[in-house]
């Protein structure tokens, strides 16, 4: 069954804005700007970028309110509201707090990792989410995995290993430090454990509330933004040196320095703004795809944006074409398709049924031929 026009629109928005989000964040990371001490350096502020991401998600509540008021003034009934704002109005806002905290921890960790590794590797390594989601769904949701799902997980593990090895090899011929690459890749994979917990929590609590996609994104953004804004205060006073972070006085995060860098360079400002705007549309489209089509389709579309990010990264000379990495990504893609029962297994089953049907017809014709009376 094909997509409706609205579903196709959601798919295009998800791939486009998802790709823009990673690329905009990496653009800001790579840009140099003068900080509060007047020294030019790369924009290394993962926690401020996480705050921007939650601000983008929070803006979805404003979008929900505007759309809801618009349709109510036109005397629409609840049943006539568009899918983006239709849903339960009487739900517990507090159920979004725990998933939002998971999102905060995972996103902040991933942004630190993105600072240390390549944009395409960042996106590819997020494929490890399948492994941890499967484990947690078995443990906490009592789900039983099928043979093809285990096979898919196996392909993903091999693909991730190849991508990691490729990054270490690439770092030897590039300006990036091998240790930073390894740390970045490990942080991204660890963040997927927290993201998996977030998805399990959403499936168990949030999705049962039947809330509209805009409100799901908006309320998680609200709790994430408030928490991150509070945490930025102690982060300013905690000094850890400049091994991973690059703040003037060695703090975990220096939001004041980040503000100066955003103000002093239009590229940093555009990259940071792009992160805020794109994440709002991406998360809305992602939740809507899950609600309108399936979580499987959302995973496949997420894989497509990995290809887009790789192509753009090579075109902008941020990365090089790496045969080993492409091989690892191919195995990752096969694993994702197998785990989500997309394309590969359905195609094989369809071919197998057609072949069996053809063999049955041929056997039947042969048998009938043997039963025909011999003409004298």
Arrangement of strands in the largest sheet: 1-2
**Ranges with pLDDT <50 over ≥5 residues?**
none
In whole angstroms, how far apart are the ends? 55 Å
Domains (count):
1
Number of strands: 2
Overall 3D shape = globular
Q: Sheet with the most strands?
A: 2 strands, antiparallel
Can you tell me about this structure?
The protein has 376 residues and is an all-alpha fold. The chain has one domain (7-364). The chain has 13 helices and two strands; from the N terminus they run H-E-E-H-H-H-H-H-H-H-H-H-H-H-H. Strands 1-2 form a two-stranded antiparallel ribbon. Helix 3 (97-116) packs across helix 8 (213-237). The chain is globular and about 85 Å long. 45% of the residues are buried. The model has no long low-confidence stretch (mean pLDDT 85).
Provide a compact summary of the structure.
Helix content is 73%, strand content 2%. The chain is mainly alpha-helical and 376 residues long.
What's the SSE blueprint?
Layout lengths: L4 H26 L1 E3 L5 E3 L3 H28 L23 H20 L2 H7 L3 H12 L6 H26 L5 H29 L6 H25 L17 H10 L1 H27 L2 H21 L7 H17 L4 H28 L5
Antiparallel strand pairs: 1-2
Helix pairs in contact: 1-10, 1-11, 2-3, 2-8, 2-10, 3-7, 3-8, 4-11, 5-7, 6-7, 6-12, 8-10, 9-10, 10-11
């Amino acid at each position: 069954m094909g997509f409706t026009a609205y579903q196709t629109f959601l798919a295009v928005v998800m791939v486009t804005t998802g790709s823009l989000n990673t690329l905009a964040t990496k653009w800001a990371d790579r840009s140099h700007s003068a900080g509060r001490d007047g020294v030019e350096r790369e924009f290394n502020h993962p926690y401020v970028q996480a705050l921007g991401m939650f601000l983008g998600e929070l803006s979805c509540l404003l979008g929900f309110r505007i759309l809801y008021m618009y349709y109510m003034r036109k005397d629409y009934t609840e049943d006539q509201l568009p899918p983006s704002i239709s849903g339960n109005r009487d739900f517990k806002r507090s159920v979004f707090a725990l998933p939002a905290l998971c999102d905060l921890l995972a996103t902040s960790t991933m942004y630190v990792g993105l600072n240390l590794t390549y944009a395409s590797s960042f996106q590819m390594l997020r494929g490890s989410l399948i492994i941890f989601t499967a484990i947690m769904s078995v443990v906490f949701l009592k789900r039983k995995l099928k043979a093809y799902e285990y096979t898919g997980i196996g392909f993903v593990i091999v693909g991730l290993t190849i991508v990691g090895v490729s990054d270490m090899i690439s770092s030897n011929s590039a300006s990036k430090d091998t240790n930073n690459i390894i740390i970045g890749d490990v942080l991204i994979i660890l963040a997927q454990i927290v993201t998996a917990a977030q998805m399990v929590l959403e499936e168990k609590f949030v999705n049962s509330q039947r809330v509209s996609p805009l409100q799901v994104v908006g309320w998680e953004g609200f709790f994430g933004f408030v928490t991150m804004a509070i945490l930025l205060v102690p982060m300013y006073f905690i000094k850890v040196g400049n091994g991973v972070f690059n703040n003037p006085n060695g703090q975990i995060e220096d939001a004041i320095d980040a503000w100066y860098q955003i103000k002093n360079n239009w590229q940093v400002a555009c990259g940071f703004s792009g992160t805020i705007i794109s994440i709002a549309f991406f998360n809305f489209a992602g939740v809507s795809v899950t609600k309108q089509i399936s979580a499987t389709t959302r995973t496949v579309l997420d894989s497509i944006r990995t290809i887009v990010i790789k192509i753009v990264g090579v075109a902008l000379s941020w990365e090089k074409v790496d045969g080993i990495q492409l091989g690892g990504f191919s195995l990752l893609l096969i694993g994702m398709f197998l785990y989500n029962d997309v394309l590969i297994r359905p195609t094989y089953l369809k071919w197998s049924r057609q072949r069996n049907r053809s063999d049955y017809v041929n056997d039947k014709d042969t048998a009938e031929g043997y039963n025909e009376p011999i003409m004298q």
